[in-house]
Amino acid sequence: MIDKPEQVERLLAKLTEVLPVLARITPELAATLQRPDAVAAIPPTCSVTSVAYAGDEGGIMCKLDLGPEHENPVYTSITHLRFDPRLSLTRDIAAYQKHRVKRIRRSRP
Q1: Which of 56, 39, 47 lies closest to 3, judged by CA?
Q2: Could you tell me the end-to-end alpha-carbon distance of the chain, in angstroms, rounded to an integer?
Q3: Considering only 1-5, 46-50, 104-108, which range has the smallest mean pLDDT?
Q4: pTM of the prediction?
Q5: pLDDT of 36-74, one tens digit each?
Q6: Beta pairing partners, 51
Q7: Strand, helix or coil at 92?
Q8: How far is CA 66 from CA 11, 47, 92, 95, in A?
Q9: Distance in angstroms (rounded) separating the CA atoms of residues 70 and 33
Q10: CA distance 38 to 17
C-alpha cells in the first residue's frame, strides 16, 4: 500500500472544503499537456475544481480548470501541482506528496 488511508481521507475532506483552489502546474506536467497543434499555451497556474481518490494507482486526483481557452477537462495527480505556501493546507499537501513519491520510488525494482 502506497498511501495512508487516514491521511488521504483527512486531506480530501480539507481540500473539498476550500475548492476551488489555485495551483501552479509543474513544468513536466505543462510539457505533457501541451499539444503541438494547440491554439493556447498551458498556463502556469490553474484552478483545482474537484478532487477524488483513485486508489494506490493514481492517488489523489485533481480536476483542473485551465481557463476558457481549454475546452477539455484535465485530470492529474496532486503530485504534479504546487500550492501557495500561504494556503493553510499546503503543509498537508506537501507531506502527502513527499510520502507518495517516496513510497512509489521504493516500490520500483
Answers
A1: 56
A2: 16
A3: 104-108
A4: 0.90
A5: 877 788 999 999 999 999 998 899 999 999 999 888 889
A6: 62
A7: helix
A8: 23, 7, 24, 25
A9: 11
A10: 33
At residue 69, the pLDDT reads 87
Residue 109 clears pLDDT 90, i.e. is over it? no
Domain ranges of the chain: 5-101
Q: What is the DSSP letter of 90?
A: H
Burial of 81 (0-12, 13-18, 19+ CB in 10 A): buried
Question: Which residue shows C-alpha cell 495527480?
Answer: 77
Cell of residue 83, nine digits: 500550492
Name the helix (H) or strand (E) containing 61.
strand 60-65
Q: What pLDDT sits at residue 36?
A: 81
Tell me how far CA of residue 2 lies from CA of 66, 104, 105, in angstroms: 29, 7, 10
